[in-house]
Design brief:
InterPro entries: DUF4440, NTF2-like_dom_sf. This protein has helices spanning 3-30, 37-53, 57-60, 81-93, and strands at 64-72, 78-79, 96-108, 113-126, 129-142, 152-160. By secondary structure, the chain is α+β, with helices and mostly antiparallel strands. The protein folds into two domains: 1-31; 37-160, Nuclear Transport Factor 2, Chain: A (Roll). The protein has a six-stranded mixed beta sheet, with helices on one face.
């Protein structure tokens, strides 16, 4: 290789690395870094509460996995997302009004599992006026390990005091 060819080769390689390093830094700025699973569930739980308080049963459906189970205190278990949506809809029609969740612990229990436990206050409108039901809840969430998909509720258990 002649000296001129060597210089041109070095310039081409150097230019490539400058362009490539600029592309990498730009791409790193565009991609949102995945949130940790506990953070994913914390955000999803807050969004669930906000959606619930809008009394939109259909919008609650996507929070649940297709084969999820909901167990409300003394009632039989409700299986599958569509049935859970119908159960929430029936609750809203019967006067269930406002939900306040107070998470106590949100812990990762496996590669794709997070458990949320806490207390709740539920306002129910009755013909005699509003009453407040208190209790505890436990939710098993399935999370995507890299945060690409939103967490899904697999099992939701509510126990009234």
């Amino acid at each position: 290789m002649s000296l001129l060819q060597k210089k041109q080769f070095l310039i081409a390689i150097t230019s490539f690395f400058f362009v490539f390093s600029g592309f990498v830094s730009a791409s790193e700025q565009r991609w949102v870094k995945p949130m940790d699973p506990v953070g994913q569930v914390t955000n999803a739980s807050q969004l669930f509460q906000e959606t619930y308080n809008r009394k939109d049963a259909d919008k609650l459906g996507p929070f649940y996995a297709k084969t999820a189970t909901l167990k409300l205190d003394q009632n039989p278990s409700v299986h599958y997302r569509d049935n859970i949506v119908q159960a929430w809809r029936a609750g809203f029609e019967q006067g269930v009004d406002n939900l306040q969740l107070e998470p106590i612990e949100i812990i990762r229990t496996g590669f794709r599992k997070v458990v949320e436990t806490g207390n709740y206050v539920l306002t129910i409108n009755t013909p005699d006026g509003a009453i407040q039901q208190t209790g505890s809840y436990t939710v098993l969430w399935r999370v995507h390990p890299f945060g690409i998909k939103p967490p899904k509720i697999i099992f939701d258990v509510v126990n009234a005091n």
